[in-house]
């Protein structure tokens, strides 16, 4: 119990439960399977990006360029698929190759030139995104290949609403879940996963115990690139158009979700489950506001408040529960004075 | 020679024209407790780096480990031979558990890609058993005391085939009890044939258990001494080439005046209780006692960082509440923390900026902009006053030596012209040579009428610099000594007798 209370995840889960209760009281449509499946589908994009951001944050870095990487991977892959055909598998593989390449460039730059990650990735964000706009002239792609259209509608579980409309667990959600499980296993059970925590905890110590810090850094940013690429394809599947400017600008929301889920911007701390909860909390806030008919303009205000309350509460808890000096003050002064002579007070001195 | 584990001969190392090590010979026997002593810059760290394979010596060196001549000692080679270093920062991972911190070296060297948590637990348990300690394996290291963190670091070293453990200044952050526990562990390792090499720049507890002490000075080996032929004075002489003579401070403060500071029954739950403390203008009061006696908490209370629950503080006779650092500074109280690096200085900023930071509001132009000329003259004045050796006021503070950094802290607070100056372990981590010049500055300040409180572990430091010495123990002042009527031995004996 005590251990549970000390975990950030517990707080996020509590907030999710409270929100869910409040929202369902106002609109019973919230807590239906249909709405839940829908949320799990439409937030797969944010959720997959969040997995990548999580690894970067655990390693003690940060990435701002992932939305640009996602857009490039998405745009390039869809263009190639239109020109040369292909399948969903080849689309994902191509996108991931592009993502890993662009992400690794971040990792190499950060390592080679020791530029702070935030500066490096702001620079590469501008570079990647700028080049994309220059080359594509900002043109949208409306006609996606057929296999993009049909794959987006694949359901692993299919149910029907009362009036006969089918709904269910989308294959997109399944992709998200598989990625989360693989990442969680990697973080917990592989040397690489534990090394990422170690590097984020203390880089110099990591070097001293013989970890390949450079390799781990490049891996983390490359992995971020891969997640961005998958998310880019997922975005194309969800909206069925490709717009060079539709993703860029969402970076901070994703980072916020990961931090909301308990990852530390200082590095070394964070879990996949927490990140999932963070994403879902944001999803519920946004979805709940729609269902409660609150104007969408309030969304950012609520997100800001939720972040402050949730993150603030758990770090305040850590601060107050942290190391405090506690001295067992002695109560036996007269006895001590009798035994050794002299007493503590220094008020009785006149002659010096 | 009898059972040498490590023997090094003719070690030279030149860095960019500086002879860091000059033809040094050094040897550690199997299972020996050895101490390497020297002031800052004596070459200790360079020698340790060569032993651990981080740095290669200049050609011509001869290194023999366990009877085998080693031609190129790399860090991998050093670890393979059972040599491990625990640096002062311990190289732990604050975010990971005890178990992971202990087993990580083994995980890394095993080259297995998949982690077996069961195996890692066994490794950690076995390592702790070897030195008879029992920490919670699932505790996160950042929540442990300094002493427990050190045990974690030692346990990690023990997961390999440890033959020589090198520890850099292991006792500075430990209480007496914790030091005893650490030394017990070291003796236990000795019984198992593991040698320990302590690195130290002052005579302390570790030197008492060491069998031999090698002293370095200016990159040269002064010699290797059996520890029972050394005492404070001798080792200080070997390390610095001179002996400091403490000159007692007997300038009598004017006790007829209103005291600068007077506290009545000052108490704070779980910190200190019933503190009656008086400081007159021009008086230096020393507070000593073991780590954890409440002395730092009391100092923080007087500086507004740890407000007391009850009791009264009078400043120059007036009852005063000190609820924040700003108020404390407004009342002319200055505080130099023990950990000057963490709390006292902005390391990346220039020396000049650090000095004037407390008095910026007095160095403004009519329009409330910072007056560059006033700032510069203030900086020059402070640098000269304390004879700080600096490359220039624009250099970052972190480029200075420990002693000079401490002087910058003093300069910073003296610039604010305080009435009451509280110094928490003002010379910790500073070598003997730099110490006496800081003491001279403190005495001069008192002669100018400042009231000063010095908190220190070192009895000579308080005895010879203070009018009175108060002993704190578990949150209370349990005795007052008048410096001129007592001796080092008397205070030492009293502290030991009342230690629990």
The gist of it:
With 352 residues, chain A is mainly alpha-helical. Chain A has helices at 2-5, 8-26, 33-42, 44-58, 66-84, 88-113, 117-136, 146-152, 171-189, 191-201, 203-208, 213-239, 251-260, 272-291, 299-321, 333-340, and strands at residues 155-160, 166-170. In chain A, helix 5 (66-84) packs antiparallel against helix 6, helix 6 runs antiparallel to helix 12 (213-239) and helix 9 (171-189) packs across helix 10.
Structure description:
The complex is a heterodimer of chains A (352) and B (500). Chain A is 69% helix and 3% strand. With 352 residues, chain A is mainly α. Chain A has one domain: Orthogonal Bundle (ABC transporter involved in vitamin B12 uptake, BtuC), CATH 1.10.3470. A two-stranded antiparallel ribbon of chain A has the order 1-2. In chain A, α4 (44-58) packs antiparallel against α14. Chain A is globular and about 95 Å long. Residues 346-352 of chain A have low confidence and may be disordered. Chain B contains 17 helices and 21 strands. Chain B has a 6-stranded mixed beta sheet with strand order 6-7-8-3-9-10, with helices on both faces. Chain B has a 6-stranded mixed beta sheet with strand order 17-18-19-14-20-21, with helices on both faces. In chain B, strands 11, 12, 13, 15 and 16 form a 5-stranded antiparallel beta sheet that branches. In chain B, α3 crosses α4, α3 runs parallel beside α5 (146-158) and α13 (372-385) crosses α14.
Radius of gyration of chain A: 26 Å
- Uncertain segments of chain A: 346-352
Q: Which structural class best describes the helix and strand composition of chain A?
A: mainly alpha
- How many helical elements of chain A? 16
Shape of chain A: globular
Architecture per CATH nomenclature, i.e. the level-2 architecture of chain A: Orthogonal Bundle
Largest sheet of chain B: 6 strands, mixed
Topology, element by element:
The complex is a heterodimer of chains A (352) and B (500).
Chain A: H1 2-5, H2 8-26, H3 33-42, H4 44-58, H5 66-84, H6 88-113, H7 117-136, H8 146-152, E1 155-160, E2 166-170, H9 171-189, H10 191-201, H11 203-208, H12 213-239, H13 251-260, H14 272-291, H15 299-321, H16 333-340
Antiparallel strand pairs in A: 1-2
Helix pairs in contact in A: 2-14, 4-9, 4-12, 4-13, 4-14, 5-6, 5-7, 5-12, 6-7, 6-12, 9-10, 10-12, 13-14
Chain B: E1 4-15, E2 18-29, E3 33-37, H1 44-51, E4 62-65, E5 68-70, H2 75-80, E6 83-86, H3 98-110, H4 117-130, H5 146-158, E7 164-168, H6 176-191, E8 195-200, H7 205-209, E9 212-217, E10 220-226, H8 232-240, E11 261-268, E12 272-275, E13 278-279, E14 284-288, H9 295-302, E15 310-315, E16 318-320, H10 325-330, E17 333-336, H11 340-344, H12 351-356, H13 372-385, H14 402-415, E18 420-424, H15 432-447, E19 451-455, H16 459-465, E20 468-473, E21 476-482, H17 488-498
Parallel strand pairs in B: 3-8, 3-9, 6-7, 7-8, 14-19, 14-20, 17-18, 18-19
Antiparallel strand pairs in B: 1-2, 1-4, 4-5, 9-10, 11-12, 11-13, 11-15, 15-16, 20-21
Helix pairs in contact in B: 3-4, 3-5, 4-5, 13-14
């Amino acid at each position: 119990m005590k251990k549970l209370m000390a975990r950030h995840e517990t707080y996020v889960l509590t907030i999710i439960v409270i929100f869910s209760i409040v929202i369902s009281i106002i609109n019973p449509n919230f807590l239906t399977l249909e709405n839940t499946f829908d949320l799990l589908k439409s937030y797969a994009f944010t959720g997959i990006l969040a997995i990548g951001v999580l690894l970067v944050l655990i390693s003690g870095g940060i990435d701002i360029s992932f939305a640009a990487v996602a857009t490039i991977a998405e745009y390039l892959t869809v263009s190639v698929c239109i020109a040369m055909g292909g399948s969903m598998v080849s689309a994902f593989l191509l996108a991931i190759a592009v993502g890993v390449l662009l992400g690794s460039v971040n990792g190499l730059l950060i390592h080679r030139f020791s530029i702070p990650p935030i500066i490096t990735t702001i620079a590469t964000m501008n570079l990647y995104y700028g080049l994309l706009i220059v080359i594509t002239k900002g043109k949208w792609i409306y006609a996606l290949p057929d296999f993009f259209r049909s794959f987006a509608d694949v359901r692993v579980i299919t149910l029907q609403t009362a009036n006969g409309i089918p709904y269910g667990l989308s294959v997109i959600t399944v992709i998200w879940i598989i990625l989360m499980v693989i990442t969680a296993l990697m973080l917990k059970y592989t040397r690489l996963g534990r090394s990422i925590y170690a590097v984020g905890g203390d880089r110099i110590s990591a070097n001293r115990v013989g970890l390949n810090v450079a390799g781990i850094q490049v891996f983390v940013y490359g992995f971020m690139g891969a997640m961005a690429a998958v998310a880019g394809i997922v975005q194309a599947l969800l909206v069925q158009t490709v717009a060079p400017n539709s993703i860029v600008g969402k970076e901070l929301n994703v980072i916020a979700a990961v931090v909301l889920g308990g990852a530390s911007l200082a590095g070394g701390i964070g879990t996949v489950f927490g990140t999932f909860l963070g994403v879902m909390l944001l999803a519920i806030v946004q979805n709940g506001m729609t269902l409660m008919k609150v104007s969408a303009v309030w969304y950012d205000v609520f997100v800001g408040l939720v972040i402050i309350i949730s993150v603030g509460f758990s770090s305040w808890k850590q601060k107050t529960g942290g190391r405090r000096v506690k001295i067992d003050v002695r109560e036996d002064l007269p006895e001590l004075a009798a035994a050794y002579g002299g007493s503590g007070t220094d008020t009785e001195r006149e002659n010096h | 020679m009898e059972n040498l584990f490590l023997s090094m001969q003719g070690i030279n190392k030149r860095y960019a024209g500086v002879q860091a090590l000059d033809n040094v010979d050094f040897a550690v026997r199997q299972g020996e407790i050895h101490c390497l002593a020297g002031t800052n810059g004596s070459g200790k760290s360079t020698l340790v780096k060569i032993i651990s394979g981080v740095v290669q010596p200049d050609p011509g060196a001869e290194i023999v480990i366990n009877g085998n001549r080693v031609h190129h000692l790399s860090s991998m080679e050093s670890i393979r031979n059972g040599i491990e270093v625990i640096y002062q920062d311990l190289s732990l991972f604050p975010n990971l558990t005890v178990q992971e911190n202990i087993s990580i070296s083994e995980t890394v060297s095993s080259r297995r890609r998949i982690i077996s948590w069961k195996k890692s637990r066994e490794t950690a348990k076995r390592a702790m058993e070897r030195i008879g300690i029992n920490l919670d394996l699932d505790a996160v290291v950042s929540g442990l005391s300094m002493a427990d963190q050190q045990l974690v670091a030692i346990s990690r070293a023990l997961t390999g085939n440890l033959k020589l453990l090198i520890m850099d200044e292991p006792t500075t952050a430990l209480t007496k009890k914790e030091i005893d526990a650490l030394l017990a562990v070291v003796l236990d390792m000795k019984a198992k044939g593991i040698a320990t090499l302590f690195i130290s720049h002052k005579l302390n507890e570790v030197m008492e258990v060491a069998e031999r002490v090698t002293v370095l000075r200016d990159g040269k080996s002064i010699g290797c001494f059996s520890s029972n032929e050394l005492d404070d004075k001798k080792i200080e002489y070997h390390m610095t080439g001179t002996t400091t003579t403490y000159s007692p401070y007997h300038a009598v403060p004017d006790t007829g005046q209103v005291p600068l500071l007077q506290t009545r029954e000052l108490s704070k739950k779980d910190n200190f209780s019933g503190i009656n403390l008086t400081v007159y203008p021009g008086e230096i009061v020393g507070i000593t006692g073991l780590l954890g006696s409440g002395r730092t908490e009391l100092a923080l209370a007087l500086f507004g960082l740890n407000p007391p629950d009850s009791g009264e503080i009078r400043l120059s006779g007036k009852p005063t509440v000190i609820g924040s650092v700003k108020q404390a500074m407004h009342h002319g109280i200055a505080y130099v923390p023990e950990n000057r690096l963490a709390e006292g200085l902005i390391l990346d900023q220039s020396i000049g900026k650090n000095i004037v930071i407390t008095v910026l509001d007095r160095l403004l132009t009519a329009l409330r902009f910072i007056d560059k000329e006033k700032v510069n003259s203030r900086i020059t004045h402070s640098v000269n006053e304390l004879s700080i050796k600096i490359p220039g006021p624009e250099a970052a503070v972190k480029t200075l030596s420990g002693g000079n950094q401490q002087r910058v802290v003093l300069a910073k607070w003296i610039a604010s012209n305080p009435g009451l100056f509280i110094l928490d372990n003002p010379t910790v981590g500073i070598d003997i040579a730099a110490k006496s010049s800081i003491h001279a500055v403190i005495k001069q300040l008192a002669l100018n009428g400042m009231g000063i409180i010095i908190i220190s572990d070192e009895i000579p430091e308080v005895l010879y610099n203070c009018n009175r010495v108060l002993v704190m123990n578990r949150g209370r002042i349990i005795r007052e000594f008048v410096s001129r009527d007592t001796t080092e031995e008397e205070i030492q004996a009293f502290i030991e007798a009342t230690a629990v």
